[in-house]
Hints:
Blueprint: H1 11-19, H2 23-30, H3 34-41, H4 49-59, E1 79-82, H5 88-112, H6 129-139, H7 151-157, E2 161-163, E3 182-186, E4 196-199, H8 205-221, H9 235-248, H10 251-257, H11 268-274, H12 278-287, H13 293-305, H14 323-332, H15 336-344, H16 348-355, H17 376-384
Parallel strand pairs: 2-4
Antiparallel strand pairs: 1-3, 3-4
Helix pairs in contact: 1-5, 2-3, 5-14, 6-9, 8-9, 12-13, 14-15, 15-16
Amino acid sequence: MAHEPTPVGQRLTALLSIRGLTQAQLATRLGVGQPFLSHIVRGVRPIPPSMVLAACREFGLPAAFFAVTATAADLGPATFRKSSRATTRDEARVVTLYDEAARLFRGVSEVSGYHTADLPDPSEHDNNAERVAELLRAASGLGAEDPVPNATRTLERLGIGVVDNLDGVEGVDSLDEESRGHTAVSRPSRHNLRPMIAMVTDVPGAVKRLTLLHEAGHLIFDRDLTAPINSTRSVEEKRAYKFAGAFLLPERVVRAQVSETLNLHGYLPIKADYGISVGAIIMRARDLGVVSANRARSLQIQWSSQGWRHNEPVEVADEKPLLLGQALRKAYGQQAAARAAHVFGTPPLWINQWTHTDTGVDVDPSAPARTTVVDLTAARARRTGSPAASTLSSHIPEHSGRR
């Protein structure tokens, strides 16, 4: 007869990080003394079944939550897109939630039979971000100048999992907005053949697309990372941004459509067509030498003074991940969240949030990628609120990342 997994007291550390509690606060909620709890967290004493039961009841956790042990895929530095206001406490919660979601994705993806990630070895291409982006675009069925209709779906077809709203699950005590500064997180590792990217908070569609490709760049180029990346000016960060820009906006498109004299509003049709922000297009043009550093600086000042930093014209539609939810239903059928919770130790509420199980959307992520250039007349009409905007949907594949 199979034995139940032995509960692991150190999993209380994960609970502390996710809920933002001190050991004293957790001890009070579990009805035990703080010194006793400390011994369990440090592995000095085993966690008693009564405490496992109390924690499961208090925090809505499956008993399997306390049977989880780390693997090689859970080790190594995490990579982020974050702001200067991100706190250490915030980072601990984000990383812990990411590990919970990544473990779920690895397990469900494998059980469902979905393929492992199909990513190139960048060392075979001189670690050239432009070249690797070009190869992956071609592998995704994109022509040399085609827009990426849906960045999320493209990554999922490559075997990379994507999770939305990582830090918005019900039952998780989030910090106040002033203390939150993380946008996305991933964990590059040569030991993980089923990598995942998590969006921590909601951002505009164009920012989200660039962010996802940025983290994909880390997954590809930084699989042997041994220490955290502490500077946005690091080689790794610059390379990840370059990869993301090259994937969304190929060099030949920039050279054909951008010039030193192009005014700020002239960048909007490019955004409408390629789903990349004006700010990012300016930076890409500067990095490619299409516009001078002085011109880029002037455009950025205009961009900021017009309020585009927080409210840039041209809406790029949000993209929702599908792969995890589809794999979950394929692997576990009816009551998939409850069944997966028993296997992986992830609360059903979290699973439902991360898989958008209430949306009813179902698209096959293995279907070939389709590329369609957004009609600029309709895109411009959308910006002005003209009735002609309704024609835009006829030019875009269903569930594309553009509208």
